[in-house]
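Lab notebook, bench 4. We co-purified these components, and the gel suggests they stay together. Before we commit to crystallization screens, I want a quick structural picture of the whole thing.
Request: model the full complex, all chains together.
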Amino acid sequence: MTASVLALAAVAVSLQVSVTNFINFAYGDFMTFGAYIAWTVAEHGVNFFLAVLIGGIATGVLGVVSNFVIFRPFMRRRVRPVTLLIAGVGLSFIVQNGMTIIWGTEPVRFNVTLGNALHIGPLVLTPGDLVTIGAAVALLVLLHAMLTYTKFGKSLRATSNNVDLAKACGIDSDRVISITWFIAGILTAVAGVGLVLQESTLDPTTGFSELFVIFGAVILGGIGRPYGAMLGALVVGILTEVSGSYVDSAYKTSIAFGFVIVLLLFRPQGLFSAAGKTS
Amino acid sequence: MLFFFTDLLALGCIVSIMVVGLNLQYGYTGLLNFAFYMYVAIGAYIAGVTTMGPPTLPGITYIFGWTLPWYVGLLLGGVVAAAAGAVVFAFTVRRLRSDYLAIVTVSAAFIVYNVINSFIPLFDGATGLFNVPPITGNLNVSTEQYSLIVLLVAAILLAVFVFISMRIFRSPFGRLLRAIREDETVTSAFGHASWRPQLWVFVIGCFMAGIAGGLFIFYITAWSPSAFLPLESFFLLAALIIGGSGNYWGAVFGAFVVIEGLAELSRYAPTFGSQADAGAIRAMIIGIALILVLRYRPEGLFPERWLKWYRTTASAARKRVLPGRQSP
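Here is the predicted assembly.
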């Protein structure tokens, strides 16, 4: 998983965690879902980029619906975070196996040609990589602008900082949370497509198997801090790639997981955090 | 037809042992272990390599290759799983909050899975172990009879483990565990180091997992990484929560109905689309049931408070603790 894909996914997770304060276990499956929708639309002859956009919107809607139907009732009751985590596992079962029923377990691949690979010195950048990196940079800049300069961004940050206080100031935090799920959904779907372009095949477990690497990046940046997540993604992404040249590639994912474990054990607040959200 | 039932019951008893073990960890004291099946796999592998003798076929490699009797192998599997549990506990549980613990346990399970899958000299990599000797040894028994024998062994062990669970539940130790689950700060304020009881119960749970894994490998006589995908742990947890976490009967119910019953039922579900559907439908149903139970009946179908001695009667406790106090 390269840093650009990881950054998109990690920022999406981090954004959602920042306003809802729990980790959504179904995120990997959301990625797969977005990629599948985009694939299906693209198979019907629609332009690739439009297809990705449609996949993003569909995933955003899935996020909003999941929040409405599953997570919000739990949050209203102020259950323990563990309960939300387990509900996320249930959602993951539903989404992942729903995809198995609809699309089957046979891997599929995007039928797009985006041009030739680019060689910069020893680096080889496939067009998929370039598009993903471009999309990641564009989306993250857009997100940054939204968080910093719009009124919605302000209310999102307020909600993330303290839901009750935000409510007391007249911010419709339910609406903020819904919109956050939607935005996170779009980012997730783009990350899902990027992941597929890079792994070259897509099956119902594609996203799930990367979930914990994403969590690693999120935690590294400090949970619920989108900017930290970008940096975390960069570090984790580069680390796994570099480690690939020192150990057998079969153990590459183990390195990422080992990294997650060590990180959580010794610096659960993230590498760059000083103060801020603790849970 | 008879085989259908003995097979189902034997597998049900084996899975029940797992869920009863998980119940000790999550139900009794709130340790969210998302990697429970890893200990099952450890038990299975150890039981396999300590009983099946050195590798005979070319290209097959695994460690040990001893020819111990099956019950020694089974016990060894349980002990090694328990030891692994103790190590993991020492490194993780004392340091982490429950949701981080979940992530760390899953990550650890992925690593173990990855290593077993890729490092062939250990347990023969992705091919796995096969031709594990059945517990009947050289006796000539049919598949039907064998499933009956395994059923008997598994049922006896399940009874033992449920009995142990019951004794733990009713003991002061069990009460302490529940108190830690409800509020760790308060129990430590009362002078109980909360990690020590949790360590014991975690290790006992892992031991049960190892035993269940050993029984499993002796029953199906083969084991490979595809048998312990990380997803299996989630199924066990779902079964426990739907059945009723904290209640050992709920755990047994969950194992039989949610895991085994649904597996059988979904086989008869109408198939549309691809062939992988039965498993997918089953997992979807489990996911929906899990969310519904969490939302509308968070204690599960068999709540913990139904158990005898869930709490001592309030009046007796008051008399004992506060003699002669006037009610306000």
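Chain B has 13 helices and two strands. Worth comparing against the SEC data before the next meeting. Confidence is low (pLDDT under 50) at residues 322-328 of chain B.
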